[in-house]
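Changelog excerpt

This revision adds worked examples to the README so contributors can see how folded entries look when concatenated. The first example is reproduced verbatim below.
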Amino acid sequence: MTTRSLKYILAFGVIAFVLGLFVPLSFSQEEEKVLEVQVFLTKKQALEIAFPGADKVKRVKKWLTDEQKESIGEICFQKIEANRMSFYAGMRDGVPIGYALFGHQLGKSYPISYMVVLNLDGTVRDVEILVYREPRGWEVRYPSFMDQFTGTTADTDFRNINTITGATLSVNAMVKGVSRASAAYKVLFLSGNP
């Protein structure tokens, strides 16, 4: 064997050793994804917050036509796949005092479960996070962020919602959820659709 061949074999061995040693270390240092479920409200608790003083809460199922899906999607700039939406009407003396819609929107890796409460005129009265499953971005639950949705409607430019550094995907998820709920309410309750 020549000296040149021996150098190549030795160089190859050193490279293999280094890759064998450092590649597994770099993978082992990656952060593990851990599902951290934070339950803030049950559905029952959320509805109590949504409709204080209501005599009862009634579930209102709305089956969507293709035209309604398209209209909702055009308003909120999203593709609507669902065939049915279930709103909850807070009732007092047999008259609705507002509506709530529960939803799930994907954050970075896991869904965020939330509730949007709407006044009869379609303005957002409240937004609550029920379950948060991400290891980061939980700051979207703070009133300083959530209060930005109060008073918005389906016609609001949701791009004006201030973001939170380090929680961009959670912010985007909440904006999508609230804009979709507002758009659905407008199409299903305010546009004369039965």
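The second example, added in the same revision:
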Amino acid sequence: MRTILRFVSRNLTFMILGAMIAGLFNSYFGSGIQFNIGVCAAASFLMIYPMFINLKMGDVAEARNFKGAVSLSLFLNFIISPALGFFLGKIFFPEQPFMALGLLLISLIPTSGMSATWTERTKGNLKVALSIIAVSLLVVIVLLPIALPLLAGNVLTVTPAFIFLRILMVIIVPLVLGDITRRIIISRKGLDYYKKSKPTFLGLSSLGLLFVLFLIMSLKTNRMLLENPLLVLKGLLPLAIYYIAMFGSSTFLSRKMPYPVSVAVTYGTSVRYLALALGIAVPLLGEGEGSSLVVFIVALAFFVQVPLSSFYSSFRQRKVVIK
């Protein structure tokens, strides 16, 4: 089982593509499925909960040791990123507001555990990365119910209280349960067992993500996506601009920091928590063409985020070797 989960985690980008294609084919050539909020919410929970087992909220306390890096990450995550997502949506999707909403949602949901993985792989400061992740998650719980309706405008008709209830379901509850689970595992099995189990939790989260994508892409309303392949190209261009701008601006603004800290800041602001964006979009928007377009943009972001993260890792390490 662990071998299978590791395989899923290491080949996630290709498996995401496979899950999306399988879902679309089921929608177009098969019977498709009707939207079920209960099933989608449960799948979203199973996608997010294992990821939170790997996250220690105690890392928030570490932030006081890295005030400059964490402050810069908050500026990039909650000012630069939403502004960039908002204006790119206006420019590229003036007549498709739900695609703009998908891009906005990506820009508002901050970093994930994957940023820690990339930071470690690029020889960055892991403690800084973990502090950025923990602080950003706490901020988004408060900020998202206010910022999302304000920036989305008439496209989103729900109230901040409604959004907070969804955040409670997809962030706060899994976060608390994940922390409790981690403590129980450590107390009963020991710290070494917990560390060895981390890839398993990541794999379970990846499986949940694949199931959510298949489920959403299988909706009958998604037939339009196969009938309009230009939507893929239309979605990829602003996503590429967004990620290049985030990697570039974070690298530039952190250039005077030590290399390991600079790497942590860049990954802590450029790698978005796409699984969480899906987890919020599904119960928030329900069924319909608009929901499909939002999910479609978030899913496409995986195919930009992962290759650029890999390229950036090679680029930064090569620059260090040259120096």
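Reviewer comment on example two: The chain has a mean pLDDT of 83. The domain at 36-188+229-314 is CATH 1.20.1530.20 (Na+/H+ antiporter like fold).
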